[in-house]
Amino acid sequence: MRRLIIAIFCIAISLQLSAGKFDRTTIIPTQTDTPPILDGILNDDVWKNAKTVTDFITFMPDFGKDLSEKTIGYIAYDRDNLYFAFKCYDTEPNKIKASITARDNISDEDWVCVNLDTYNDQQSLSAFYVNPFGIQMDSRFMSGNEDASIDLVWYSSGKLNDEGYSVEIQIPLKSIRYSSGSPVEMGIFLERNISRSSEHGSYPELNPEKGYAMLTQLNPIVYHDLKKQTLLEILPAFTHSKRSSYKEGEMSTDFKKSDGHLTLKYGITSDLVLDATYNPDFSQIEADAGQVDINLRNSLFFSEKRPFFLEGNEIYKIGATQSSSNDPLRSIVHTRTIVNPIFGIKLAGKLGDKNNVLLLYAKDELPKIDGQNQFAHFPVFRYKRILNKDSYIGGIFTSRELENTYNRVGGLDGEVRLSPSSTLAFHSILSESQSILQDETLDINSGHSIGLTYWFSNRDIDYGLIFKDISTDFNVDMGYIKRTGMQIYAGYFKQKIYPKADFFNRIDGEIYTSAVNDKFYNMWEMFNYSAITIYFWGNAQFIAKYYLTNEIYLGERFKTNGFHTLLSKQITKGISAYTVLRWNNAIFYGDPHQGKTFKATGSITFQPSDKLSSQLSINYAQFRSNHNNEILYSYPLARLKLTYQLNKYLFFRGIGEYNGYYDNLVSDFLASFTYIPGTVIHLGYGSVYQNLGGDELCEINCRKLKLRERARGFFFKVSYLWRL
What we know:
This protein is mostly beta strands. It has a domain at about 20-225: Immunoglobulin-like (Sandwich), CATH 2.60.40.1190. The protein contains three helices and 42 strands. Strand 10 (about 155-160) and strand 11 (about 165-170) form a beta hairpin.
């Protein structure tokens, strides 16, 4: 009995000490009347007196170890801005990976990051990344989804030195949303990434029992006497574009247009913002990279890149979606379905302490029919009620309305934290669609999607249970769904092992199994895989995955099992590469029959200097029929991108992409100046060339490169952001 009492006492003391280790002490930052000069040199008076933190502890590749390189974080503010600085020591400064590159292009480099939960409600955070040259990257994180497409207005600088590097950051209060009143409480999480060893360290330390549930582990920070901000942004823009194509032996103009655009942003309060845009410029400065676009069961997915739709985009994430590799429902709202909007208006932010809202309306101009203008109307409403921790319950409604047809989608979703390591997510979404049949009668269909997922994650293991039921008539015109008429029962398990050998950082073994009922034919298919992932040799990664799968298509069961591998490595500071190879049985969807595919994807990046970089990417797919062993298609894609970054604001870029299936070559040239997001000048030119092949004397399979330009385009944009 005595031993039992002693054991219980020791366990209780151990648990108490463990709990105390991860307690969060509120940070009171230093207020200043003299802002720092952002030059990457930490010699300003504000940094001499600023609040500092030094205990950076790793959470990747393992938890709980002192970061190998000493790091100091500095925290200060004035009435209009938040200030942060990092002093990053490095015993091998010549191995620091950094480049003068375009914004949002530093993920594989050394960097520091300030993560801010500006409401301290454990629902979302804004992340501000900076590399040793002061180049920025930012993102928004909510419901397990990080959206890197946003571009906030903030300022940074960085400088390499003999001891490592230092970084300074200024975040204007007008660029973030936060609670009104005084004092203002936020949550903070500081990070440092050392690329050559794949080390991620943080302050505060993450609890391994909570894993990567970052939102519940931020440190509270309290700001006093912040100035009440009145946000008004005016963003006028001018664009000119011209497109030509080859017709009747010569290039002729298809399209030529000069246009003006206007976007407005008004902060009703510090946490509720109204956006409006008329004749918006949603032009992209870089075309989507080519993808294999044949023998597909579903349409390709292209990410949203247009500024008006990006802010608040993370709130569209629905619980229990994107929950596995064979989850067909990716999103209820995918705004790239709004192709040519005339105007839009959006209200996004918080009402009170517990209510997140987003209302959006856009009017989309469709191609004319019989000379008549056609329009589609897109209203969207999203609501999330904040519960305890990072839990919420929400509702969503979307619609695509035409004159006589519509698609309306609405329902409930949520995520509840059951324990420090586990969550339960769900959704119940209904759809109703009206269409016109050939005899001009109206047809109304309704459908549903129900999802339920349980997820557990800590330092050592991850596992989950998944249930999905998607009816045959479920339709989301404004979203993205690969397939309907499915019922999925799935389970997932991952074991993480941390070898003591220095060469290996971590080894993961994982198993996924699912049974899927195809409701159209009441037939069952399976999707199973086992995989091993090895993190080794600093930042190298190797994955080997075996699939045991089949698929129902048009009432027939086809084999789709196979094997794939991935290998990636930062070879030197200036050279990195990765390759993915996959062999599997597959379906030829055009004339359904069994076959085999081989797919290869690879990329190598070479940076000979801080300002110059090149990237060569290869994508190849081949299908061989089982009927006669004939190769039905070979689809090679090659893309070369060369970039010269003159400074942090101005770059010149050239892209050449060869599509071997269509036998054409695309060239794209761009000069781009970005002072801050919104204040930009872009000048671009692109051409498409068709290979006319060999001549009559050429033997079979002989091909000569004989290019003829069949399309070209010119693009110019200038815009200026006024912030009042």
